[in-house]
Amino acid sequence: MDHSKHTPLTRQELTADIIADAPIYGAGDEKIGTVSHVHGSGAITDVVIDVGGILGIGAKPVLVSIDQLNLMRDEDGKVHGVTSWTKDQLEALPEHHD
């Protein structure tokens, strides 16, 4: 996927309503997880990403700073994120518990 043609989300768009369920793509442009939910707002926002599993079953929730993600809209307006993390790196993070 050529992300260079996608529109970055503004800081005001970084809300749970907009980014929940957004797929997250890793360094190799493979899907590595999905945004489960968001903690905080503005500059102090963290995102819970479900990593692994099949269709969300057995996925491990991990917490990362929103600054670790480049969130954007594709040509169809669908929100997704890109990160330099790999799936293995995310899976190595501690499991997040609400």
From TrEMBL:
<feature type="domain" description="PRC-barrel">
    <location>
        <begin position="21"/>
        <end position="70"/>
    </location>
</feature>
<dbReference type="Pfam" id="PF05239">
    <property type="entry name" value="PRC"/>
</dbReference>
<dbReference type="InterPro" id="IPR027275">
    <property type="entry name" value="PRC-brl_dom"/>
</dbReference>
<protein>
    <submittedName>
        <fullName>Photosystem reaction center subunit H</fullName>
    </submittedName>
</protein>
<dbReference type="InterPro" id="IPR011033">
    <property type="entry name" value="PRC_barrel-like_sf"/>
</dbReference>
